[in-house]
Predict the structure.
Amino acid sequence: MHVAEIFYSLQGEGCYAGVPAVFVRLAGCDNACSWCDAKETWDAGAFPRLSAGEIAERVGACPCRTVVVTGGEPLRYSLDAVCLLLKAQGCRLHLETSGAGAFSGEWDWVCLSPKRQQPPCAGNYRHADELKVIIATPDDFAWAEENARRVAPPCRLLLQPEWSHFNTVAPLVTAYIREHPQWRLSLQIHKFLAIP
């Protein structure tokens, strides 16, 4: 797998915001979201290839057993082997994905964050513990609801204001959640705190 970085920080968004975690950021993504905050990861070939064993060794050197595999788009890779090794180390495994690739790996928590340009594979909705939809324009609320109809309870539904339009979008998101209380607010606290 091409790995952009492995680092230890706090989960900055979603249901586990504030929880210490080791992040394994895999490289390569075809979604090309204009607001992506990890655009440097899109070109997988710009990053070194690491084996599942090398990833597990680096994760094992960190003081935390919660591991978030993110991207890029992690489902570009088969994740079975790395999950097996990390589980053997006693890790709790979280996946952050658009769901646009073939599902693999064994996960304790799956955050599905669907993208319009490459929607999730139909079978991937059933894996979602958390549906996190980025809201950049008012049209995104309809996209959020379309995806919410495809996940099964008890999947948690979160709306996250897109960071570069935060001051404009956040009031729309909070108003929408007040009117649709099945949704919760996700904020990118790592950006407010200026941490990785």
The mean pLDDT is 96. The first strand starts at residue 3 and ends at 10.
